[in-house]
Amino acid sequence: MVSNGRQMLGLILALAGFVGTILMCSLPAWRVSAFIGANLVTFQIYWEGLWMNCVVDSTGEMQCLPYDSPLALDQDLQAARAMVIIAIIAGISGIMLSFVGGKCTHFVPNEESKAKIAIAGGIMFIISGLLVLIPVCWITTSIIRDFYNPALVDAQRRELGSSLYIGWACAGLLFLGGSLLCSSCPPKDDSPYRVTYSQAKSVDSSKVYV
């Protein structure tokens, strides 16, 4: 019963991380305008994401335009887009394996095989979390490096967007959920040692000597 609850908790946490990964991928808030120096009073706010960039004017109106070509993106955004897409694919695989290997489902009759499938689903969630964490940390380092670059003007500096914070939370949920699913150990036999008994031999009464 405890193992069943741990598996359900791991699946719920991993699902929350997977949904957050999709949200992080779709939001154009990886980089936002930095309000410093001459850029403190500005009439436009720039948001940059994996698929589009947006401009918010002083009236609150937002205009978003998709990128003309993937080759026009920076190298870090191109790598982040590829890794996040692979992370989503790995998350889908983890969800399917976790449902098939769940203790509450009856797709696989053998309990030992179900536990192995659930462990495989947990491994896929951990891989998905790693693929989310790498581009988030990479772009965070790039933003911080450019922020303190004296060769850039204030209008070119960017700050951390909300998608990066969502990415850190999603990576943690995927790691935790995948670890709980990996703790679904296959059932072991109660008697690991097989005991064999030999048949008792009958003694002929005529051969018994006093």
Task: Summarize the model shown.
By secondary structure, the chain is an alpha+beta fold. The protein is 52% helix and 10% strand. Helix 1 (2-26) runs antiparallel to helix 2 and helix 2 runs antiparallel to helix 3.
Task: Name the descriptors.
single chain; 210 residues; alpha+beta; 5-stranded antiparallel β-sheet; 4 helices; 5 strands; tight junction; cell membrane; Claudin_CS
Description:
- The N and C termini lie far apart (62 Å).
- Helix 2 (75-100) runs antiparallel to helix 3.
- Helix content is 52%, strand content 10%.
- The protein contains four helices and five strands; from the N terminus they run αββββααβα.
- The protein has helices spanning 2-26, 75-100, 111-147, 162-182, and strands spanning 31-33, 44-48, 52-57, 62-66, 158-160.
- It is α+β, with helices and mostly antiparallel strands and 210 residues long.
- Strands 4-3-2-1-5 form a five-stranded antiparallel β-sheet.
- The protein is elongated.
Question: Please, how many helices?
Answer: 4
Low-confidence parts lasting 5 or more residues at pLDDT below 50? none
How many beta-strand segments? 5
Shape: elongated
Radius of gyration: 28 Å
* Arrangement of strands in the largest sheet: 4-3-2-1-5
Main beta-sheet annotation? 5 strands, antiparallel
User: Structural class of the helix and strand makeup?
Assistant: alpha+beta
Order of helices and strands: HEEEEHHEH
The overall pLDDT average reads: 80
Distance between the termini: 62 Å
Percent range for β-strand residues: 5-15%
The helicity comes to: 40-55%
